[in-house]
Fold these 2 entries.
Entry 1:
Amino acid sequence: IGNVYYDQNERISQKNISADLIDQKTLFEIAGEHGKKTAIVSGKKNMLTLFEKGCDIQATMSAHPDYIGEAPQLDDSENNDQYYDYHLKTTSWVFEALKSVLTEEKPDFTLVNIQSADSIGHRFGPDSFEVAQAVKLIDQEIGKLFSYMKKSDILSDTAVMILADHGMSPVSKAIPINVLMNNNFDQAAVVVDGRNAYIWLNGDDAAAVTAFFEAQEGVARITSKGSPEAQALRVDCERCPDLILDSEPGYLFIPEALLWKYQGMHGTTEDSDMNIPMIFFGSGIPQNQEMADAKIVDLAALTCKLMGLTADGFDGTVPRLTAPGAEAVDFFTGQGD
């Protein structure tokens, strides 16, 4: 759920999901089965825990090929000036590492993770000067990448997809849900992921837990397993939590003492947390079109179509495109068309 895995037998949670916990094949594995070379370039040190299966070339802050320059280091993560400067430097490092990987390895499929907007947004808030500067830098680096790919003739047979995995909302108030759970319930367990909290009842009364949190300041809504809302959100599986809590605007589930680290957070079903940019260009991508009702889960199906890979079982589909004033049609061509 989100960035968190909860072991119902051991009743413990861990923040980073590892590759062996993922049942479905990743795009790296699908591409590898079709003889494609894959790569990941990431500003997050732990990104490979998700994609270590099927990824041929791995370039992260902590481990990368010798032809890539040394990654920036952060001495004091609690110093805001150092934190901000480090993430800007990391952004430039990721783009330089990407160009090196494209030149040296010529991968067929590459995942690039630029973490600065997310990290800086959490610390300083989504509407901050610091986030604006981070986005400007990312925009400049994308422009340099475009020029490099065009000059190197990489763009002629490569599609580039730029997107985020979530939005972000400003926050300033804490809901200490772990303390509330420990002080009021014997069996129920909670996992926190920003502006969401996931509760497994483990024998505690659902009505009592629900009523308790409905009365808490900052709790916006509670979704129960088996409800139409849970089914619509596709969080109604056997392993899904019994209750999902969304926070009110401005609130997040966190101890009061840690609130200073977070002026921005995401996780709810609000538009500010859910809406993301999706910008595609390059080979197989028509110009001056808009995607109709595109979702982030459509990325896998679209990637396979553009690369000419045969795969199914995705939650998403290839987005339909529309020109201004026209009906939506399927304009994505796929590799070689």
Note: Residues 80-105 form the longest helix (26 residues).
Entry 2:
Amino acid sequence: MNKHAFLTSNGVKRIVLCLFFAMFIACLVSGCGPSGGDLNGDGQSSGGDSSGGGAGSWDNTPKVLTPEMPGTDMLGQEKDGETVAIDISNRAEGYIVAQYKGNYEKVKLILKKTDDPEARDYNYDLTVGGYDVLPLSGGSGTYGVTVAGNTTGTTYAPIFMDTFEAAFADEFRPYLYPNQYVNFTADSQAVAMARDVTAGATGDFDAVEKIFNYAVENIAYDYDKAEQAKQGLLSGYLPNVDDTLATKKGICFDYAALVTTMLRSQGVPTKLVIGYSGEAYHAWISVHLEGVGWVAAIEFKDEDWVLMDPTFASTGSEFQSLVGDGTNYNAMYYY
């Protein structure tokens, strides 16, 4: 048995007994809903399931959803040489597309679900002159959006503010599309690798296990980059999943983005989660398994389910103290 296995055949049998324990672990369950099957590009069931099935019953054909900017429902303004264009046409799919053109070299978009008093501000650095796909992580409801330009130092001045309503067609859609944090296309090498790795999988449990183990066994932890991050030299850093695949190394953010890409491209709803593991700012993943709900990457070890993620699994026991029984994990943001 692979020592980093996410779920084994014995683990599948035991998961029903362990799930009640897992539901009390912080970050292990982000909320359970109806399974509804995995979705492909046409919004249909991908055919994979948690129960196993015959050998090779998993459809490993890539199911990459492509964000669009049709321009049928827009927010924004053109004023004093500044152009803000926010396409909310596909908010029912769980994302918006933002563009800024103007004189500011640094621009942020702050997105917040205003009808939730506990909602956090999601701060995004916009690509000046480009387009950014941003997920609506708070689900259906009212969102406030603010675009602000950098005036000096860390000070930003508002350029544009507005609100909009979003009613999702499907709760899983934000976690199947690519976005600014999990950036991929149908041509990405990570998508092709996910197809190859999941060949012969028997269901979504098996597909997740194969992808999880691939990352653990093939991607090394980049201690140099981690030190740069610790020194604050990677502010605004966003992962390039194909670079991580090519160099075979990365930090937690890289691991999480790569695994999220591979799973989403296989039709498995996956959240890239950012928060704290103990005192360490960290990134990990949460997947939706049919018949189970949202769970974080977990491992059955010494008769206990423990919270696990690709970064700590690949670096071995020296980081195990940060994982513990899962209570060290404090999720803050979902992408």
Note: Residues 1-53, 298-308, 317-324 have pLDDT under 50 and may be disordered.
